[in-house]
Amino acid sequence: MEKVNQIVVRIASERIINGGLNPKTEKTYVIDDITNQEYRQSVEDYILTTTEGV
After folding, report:
1. What phi, psi does 40 have (nearest 5°)?
2. Residue 33: phi, psi to the nearest 5?
3. Rounded Cα–Cα distance for residues 16 and 21 (Å)
4. What is the pLDDT of residue 2?
5. φ, ψ for residue 37, nearest 5 deg
6. Which terminus of the chain is more exposed, N or C, with fewer CB under 10 A?
7. CB-based contacts of 5-12 (< 8 A; 24+ apart in sequence)
8. pLDDT recorded at residue 53
9. pLDDT by position in tens, the chain (length 54)
């Protein structure tokens, strides 16, 4: 089982929240861009815990 890097999770989450670009595609970063299930779950959790009104 891979250990999730919380810095990577925070950066990806903030890009998704703020409509930032995915560095691989140069398009708006969306949750579906994250293919690693552990990272995707961590990003979803981060967004849910840091976004008011969600």
Report:
1. -60, -45
2. -70, -20
3. 8
4. 65
5. -65, -35
6. N
7. 6/42, 8/39, 9/39, 9/42, 9/43, 9/46, 10/46, 12/39, 12/43
8. 72
9. 569 999 999 999 999 999 999 999 999 999 999 999 999 999 999 999 998 876
